[in-house]
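Entry for the shared binder. Reason: the reviewer on the internal report wants the predicted structure included alongside the sequence.
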Amino acid sequence: MDQYLPEKINVKGESFRIYLTREEIQQRIKQIGKQLSTKFQDKRPIFIGVLNGSYIFLADLMRYVNIPCEVDFLKLSSYGDEKVSSGQVHDLKQIDADIKDRHAVIVEDIVDTGLSMKYLVDKLKHFQPASLTVVTLLHKAEATQYDVQIDYAAFKIPNLFVLGYGLDFAQEGRNLGQIYIQIEGEDS
């Protein structure tokens, strides 16, 4: 299968270059998948993907989790089509599963300010899961303003705008097979 892997790309008049390769991403996801399989051995966790950004990460992660588990999705919005958070989180889709007394694993594409993750963790705690684990592909530690516990972060990245591998800029770029970072001061 051929993946979309350009060296550079322009989206909405802004230029991006490769930051994390497909190989680097897959290696870290494999490690996290093994760690989660060990942590939840004999527990049958439910993985909750945060749409839209986490769908590729979650799909790949599931390929490396070698224990019985379930998957569900929810959808939040705090960015709209912008590159920075609006400061408000909106529920767009709820999970369908009952997570009471279950081991829930939130799978997110990126934790930036932490606003959405704090909102989500607080919300899911009301459903009384047996445990709540947070997994994110990317964490912008410098940008995080809210106290959120991240149990597994595949990569800590600088406070720059990224896209690809599920992450978008105004809904474009999700199909890129690698993660790209904005080239400062370069427009198309």
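Summary line for the report: The two ends are 29 Å apart (CA to CA).
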